[in-house]
């Protein structure tokens, strides 16, 4: 038994070693990723449930490393956040999403609103509103076509600064969405105190509908709450017809998820929006 214990221990340390080495490798490659053109944005449609029309899309980062292949943002975003690299990466994503959206508009495709995720680190940069302003000016995208997705954890700290930043962003004319709603440190006072346009119900509340009556109740309560506060309500991670029917019955405005489409490359997304609708 002792022998086995020792082997397990060795196995454990060698795994730890691998994990640390792996992380350092990722970190080293990540530093170069933007300049080496390895980052790409994929786009996932957001669909209006009343009309079946695509009304916007979420831009999601993809990293194609020549040796490591496709690396998921759930792996590299946390590293980018801890190392501060998220600032450069996030700026790249903002510029690229605005540039692409403007270029689709100029190509005669339907006008869509692009949503870009902001990390807490980015949000708390004092020059964020200034940065958004110059990016819109540089790319020529009208502010109404840009949406910023923030998580409720951003709203938790530094209330006065946070409110000030949100008000500055609103005065530029962009939309603010509260992402992953219900999973962080939620508080109704956020909804009352901050200028939020859209509420995105997290996938974890959608995935077990209709099997879980609890989740169904929570989701329908969130929809009602958002509607009563005059916010647009978006369900994320919608995968099945049953979920879609439920959301339609409960008057959710917008849905996003594999039932419509996975996040798509630029060319695949172009093909999709040329059609423009799902029904
Ligand atoms: P998120 O903002 O909550 O994005 C939604 C995630 O759910 C995406 O994962 C998307 O591909 C996935 N998804 C969409 N529909 C479905 C569905 O029907 N079922 C399931 N199971 N999943 C679905 P992805 O692209 O891997 O991104 C993961 C997270 O990485 C994002 O979560 C976001 O927090 C972060 N992220 C991605 N791009 C950026 C970025 O440009 N900046 C920042 N700060 N974070 C980003
Ligand atoms: Ca998001
Ligand atoms: Ca989300
Ligand atoms: Ca999520």
UniProtKB/TrEMBL annotation:
<feature type="domain" description="EAL">
    <location>
        <begin position="23"/>
        <end position="277"/>
    </location>
</feature>
<protein>
    <submittedName>
        <fullName>EAL domain-containing protein</fullName>
    </submittedName>
</protein>
């Amino acid at each position: 038994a002792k022998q086995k214990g020792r082997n397990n221990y060795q196995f454990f340390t060698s795994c730890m070693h691998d994990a640390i080495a792996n992380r350092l490798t990722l970190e080293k490659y990540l530093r170069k990723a933007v300049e080496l053109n390895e980052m790409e944005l994929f786009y996932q449609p957001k669909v209006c449930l009343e009309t079946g029309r695509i009304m916007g899309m979420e831009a999601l980062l993809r990293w194609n490393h020549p040796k490591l292949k496709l690396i998921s943002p759930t792996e590299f975003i946390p590293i980018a956040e801890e190392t501060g690299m998220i600032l450069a990466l996030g700026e790249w994503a903002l510029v690229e999403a605005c540039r692409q959206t403007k270029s689709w508009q100029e190509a005669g495709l339907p006008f869509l609103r692009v949503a870009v995720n902001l990390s807490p680190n980015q949000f708390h940069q004092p020059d964020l509103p200034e940065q958004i302003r110059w990016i819109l000016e540089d790319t020529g995208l009208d502010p109404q076509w840009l949406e910023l997705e923030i998580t409720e954890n951003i709203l938790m700290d530094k209330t006065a600064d946070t409110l000030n930043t949100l008000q500055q962003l609103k005065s530029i004319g962009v939309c603010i969405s509260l992402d992953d709603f219900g999973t962080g440190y939620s508080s109704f006072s956020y909804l009352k105190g901050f200028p939020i346009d859209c509420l995105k119900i997290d996938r974890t509340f959608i995935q077990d509908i209709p099997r879980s009556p609890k989740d169904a109740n929570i989701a329908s309560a969130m929809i009602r709450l958002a509607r009563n506060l005059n916010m647009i309500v978006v369900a994320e991670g919608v995968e099945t017809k049953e979920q879609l029917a439920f959301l339609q019955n409960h008057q959710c405005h917008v849905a996003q998820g594999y039932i419509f489409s996975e996040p798509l490359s630029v060319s695949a997304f172009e093909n999709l929006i040329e059609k423009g609708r799902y029904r």
